[in-house]
Every structure is written in structure tokens, then in C-alpha cells.
Amino acid sequence: MDNLSHALAGLAAGEILHRLLPAESDPRAASTRHRLLLVTAALAGNFPDLDLVLTPLLPAPLGYLLHHRGHTHTLLYALPQMLLLAAAMLLAWPGARRQLTASRVSRTGFLFALALGFGLHLAMDYLNSYGLHPFHPFDAGWLYGDMVFILEPMFWIALGAPLAMTISSRRWRLLWLSLLLAVPLYFTVKSFLSWYALAVLYAVAAFGALAQLGTGPRGCKGLAAGITMLCVFVGVQAAASRQAGQVVRAAMQMRAEPGVVHDVALTAFPSHPVCWVFAAIESSEGKDEYRLARGVVSLAPDHLPAAACPQALNILSGSAGREAVVFVDDTRGSLKKLRETQAQDCFFDAWLRFARMPLLEEGVASDLRFRSSARGNFTEMDLSDFRSSPCPENVPQWRHPRADLLNLKTLSDGNDFQ
Asked: For this UniProt entry, which segments traverse the membrane (predicted)?
């Protein structure tokens, strides 16, 4: 998820913690504890993304692909990160040190804020199709939620509106609410969001803000309402994702020369459970080939066909039909070539520890999930650039997402290039 969503989730957790914990007798101590819990949860909610400093350990694009959402996004390594963040805050904030020394309740809240911040970060990152592996080193496999767009306005609105109502200054409160309402409106005008989605977002904002209004310094009704609406939203997205996957698999089987569908990766349109971009991979028994497909699926084609999904993120061009599923890419690759290159090229093997939809064309590897990325396909790697290079060190041992195609039954079945 984007860092604004992570920050808002942390702020909401810190605000709720402060309101639920027993009040401090001293108003100054209460203010310090309030700020401490807000800052701690917000920083903890973003801290794992500091893994970007690890990307120079491997040549591009491997550094980003294998170290982002890597070790810092695991339950085991959350513990030393929590200690590091706590130490840094206590060193830099004398007032926080005094508050934690004097108040057992503050110490309890501080520990909960750290744990909630890191836990929320992992849970939120799981929701989209990029993936993470939170149980490493016990399980190095990737987990994909395929539910929520990586920049999801619903998180900004559902959390931001009730949080705005906790601001004591009327001027700052109105400014924050104005920004919250203006940003999704801008994205709607630019065709990233549908007008229907905008209406739902505004309704969520109004409900959360009004529920929090007048609750007093200890009330959490609006914040609880925002979290509840987010849970409902994620549940709807999860159900829609499963249905979209089934629709795509059925459409794959209706095409000429159907095969075994190994995986369908789904990317939601923001705040729109009807529209999805998909990438799918299949292979045919007894044939030296696998097949990659990409397109758009609509779950309500009679009312909103795939071609009518929000245009700024719609990968279709010139399609005016009313189909539920429209294919954009249909690419075939050689299984023999894929396996031989993986066995012989240590850079390609490292890259395959990330790739969920691997495509190898004329010596260039790319993951079909990200062909339409705003910054180009950041997964592209020209194998000829590393032809004379020694095998890379510091390669995380994530399980190959396409071990099924590579005939790798377990991680240890892979080649050791070191």
C-alpha cells in the first residue's frame, strides 16, 4: 500500500489507543502520551519500507524486486525493527523518555503502538498483487492478496475523515477535510475513479466524520466506524477478487487450445469492486510451451462492460463491446527455454524468485503483471547485461513463484550458483 495509507492507519491506531487507555492525571503528561502514541504508530506503520536502502545490494532491477517487501516485511524481523525504532525515538525525544519512565500506562500504549504499526503494515501490503512473505524463514513462499489497488482512496477517506474530527483547531480540521474531499474528486475528473466510486467515498467520509463529531476526547465511534467500513470494503473486494478469478479461468478455458491455468493475478481498479485487470498463466500437457494472457474483467458486464471501466487505468484501447472479459495480450513462451535459462543463468534464477508471470523474449525477462505500470515495466531485465558478471551475492532465498512451471518441487531443488 501507499505510505499515506500506512500513515493514516498508524495514526488511527495511535488515536484509538490513547482514547482507550486510562487517562493521565496531568494534562501535560496526557498531551505528551497522545503525541507519542500517534508518532510511534505512524512511524512503525511506515518503517518496513526503509528496505529501499537495501536495493544497492543487488544490481537493478534485482535489488528492488528481491529486497523491497523482503526481510523487513516478515514477522520475525519486525522484532529487531521495533527495537531499533523504539531506541531511535527515545534517543531523539527526551520528553517521551520521561513520560515512559513515569507512566506504566504509557509504556503499555507505546508497546502496543509499535506492534500495531508493524502488524498493520504487513496486513495492508498483503492486500494487493505485489506479494510478500511474512513467515520467512519458516516459509519462504509469496502470499498475494489480489484484493485492493496499491493506491486506494477508501483507506484515505475511511480513516482520514474521523481523524480530522479529532483535530482541536477548527481551521486545521476544515483544511484536512477539504483536502480529503478534493483529492478523490481530482482523480475522478482525471478518470482514475468512477463517479459512482466518488459518491461512495463521500458517503463514507460523511458517515465517519459525523459519527466522530461530538464524541469528546475519549470517544472512538467515528474511528471505529471507519475501521468497520474498511473491513467491509476489504471483504467485498476479497469476494469480488475470487469471482473475477473464476470468470477469467472460465474465459481461458473457452479459448482455442485451452490448458491448465496455474495462476490468475488480479489488480483492482481503485474503489471499484466490479473492474479488474488480470494476468494469467497456463501450460498445455505434453507441449513445450506456456501461455500468458492479460486483460480486463468486469463482474457486471450488462451494466458496465470491461471496456467502460475507468479509462485512466483501463489497458483496453479501441474496444467498444460489452464483453465481461477482454484479452489484451496473448503470449506464448517455451517451457524448455525457460527451464534451461533458469538452470544456466544465475541472474535469471534470482529474477525468477520474484516473477509471478514470467516472460522471456529475446533475452529480456519481464513480469507481465507490470506491463502497464506508470513507470514502465520496472521488472524488465536484459540478461545480456550480466553475461560476463559473476553470480550475484545477497540473493534472498524466496521460493520461486513459478516453481510449478520450472519443475522445482521445493526451494532446495533449485541450482546452487554460488
From this structure: 75-96, 108-127, 147-165, 172-189, 195-215, 222-240
